[in-house]
Write a structure and sequence with these properties.
Structural class: alpha+beta
Oligomer: single chain
Number of strands: 16
Shape: globular
Largest sheet: 12 strands, antiparallel
Distance between the termini: 15 Å
Radius of gyration: 24 Å
């Protein structure tokens, strides 16, 4: 990622007269740990220059551009975690909450780099889900034994079929995913798993269709693209903002706007913040004397951190709040039900 620290060290080294040791800082893209390299004053200038020249996120006349500079044979982490707290409030004011947590452990192994394209193996390592409500918690973890409860055991069996798999991805140095292949053997595995769970042909088809709908090239390409590469192709200056708008409804009328800002580039890390969401949407529908009003809105804010040297994502921490309400009114009195969900979407939670 960005190494303003490296540029600063160059300047300091050029004006230094004493042969004191200098410390070069970089981030390990695999562990996210800060690595400090101590060199002599003379060598620090050379090292800083080399690091700046080789960096994946470079400064050119104040504009930072992002590329990928991954190492052949290395495996890069991509653990996604989402924590939700969903609260439902009834017209009488009583409320009930439910906590959900989903974790998908994925990694990317670089096999080769040729013609500016990386050949990468996507490793689907593990899945864990948990849900807590009314003092009870249910957990399904592919790294643990199958739950005794029949319904949870079936879920565990399906999740287990979704792990231990590999796909091949071609991605260029500018972060564009060219292809993701290798689904057919995994779909065959899904089919075998589903066949072991039920004899009902319609139920089998429904489960299999649902699995394929959530695990295909389009879905994964969208998921990875939104996290692997954030900066615009033209680059960005420190403090510069840019907006990405996406459809949030099937008809494309509702848009979610993500407003990004390159906050800083220092100590081997490029930090990008995000705000925005979906403005309040309302829809009314009348039936007889009763009018139903449905409204919803979404807001988000958080931070992405990228390694300056490799261009790989170190971590992401985004908070998303969704508000939904449903009101019934006869013109004299009304009743409203509300649903609020506070989510925390994280990439590489330990980084």
């Amino acid at each position: 990622m960005k190494n303003i620290a490296a540029i600063a060290l160059i300047s300091l080294a050029l004006i230094a007269c004493k042969k004191e040791n200098k410390t070069i800082t970089k981030i390990d893209p695999i562990t996210g740990d800060t690595i400090k390299i101590e060199v002599t004053a003379e060598d620090s200038t050379k090292v800083a220059q080399e690091m700046a020249a080789k960096a994946a996120i470079k400064d050119s006349a104040g504009v930072f551009k992002q590329t990928l500079k991954l190492e052949k044979g290395k495996t890069y982490p991509f653990v996604t975690q989402q924590k939700d707290v969903a609260t439902s409030t009834m017209p009488d004011g009583k409320s009930q909450s439910m906590n959900r947590e989903n974790t998908d452990e994925i990694s990317f192994t670089v096999n080769n780099f040729a013609n500016r394209v990386y050949d990468v193996t996507i490793n689907f390592i593990a899945k864990k889900t948990s849900q807590s409500a009314q003092g009870q918690t249910q957990t399904v973890d592919t790294k643990a034994a199958a739950p005794k409860d029949e319904a949870l055991k079936n879920r565990w069996t399906i999740d287990k079929a979704m792990t231990g798999n590999k796909l091949n991805m071609k991605i260029d140095e500018n972060g564009k995913i060219l292809s993701i292949t290798g689904f057919e053997p995994i779909y065959a595995k899904f089919s075998t798993t589903v066949n072991s769970l039920t004899k009902d042909a319609n139920e089998r088809k429904g489960i299999l269709d649902q699995l394929k709908a959530s695990f295909n090239e389009e879905v994964l390409r969208d998921q990875f693209s939104k996290n692997i590469f954030i900066m615009p192709k033209k680059g960005a200056k420190i403090g510069e903002k840019w907006t990405v708008s996406e459809s949030a409804s099937p008809d494309g009328k509702v848009k979610i706007n993500s407003n990004y800002t390159l906050k800083n580039v220092k100590d081997g890390v490029a930090e990008i913040t995000v705000t925005g969401g979906i403005p309040k949407q309302s829809q009314k529908e009348s039936q007889g004397a009763i009018t139903q009003t449905v409204s919803s809105e979404l807001s988000q804010n958080g931070t992405y951190r990228f390694d300056v040297n490799s261009g790989w994502i170190i971590g992401q921490d985004i908070k998303v709040k969704t508000l939904q309400s449903q009101t019934f009114s006869d013109g004299k009195k009304s009743e409203t039900m509300k649903n609020t969900t506070n989510s925390n979407v994280i990439v590489n939670p330990s980084k």
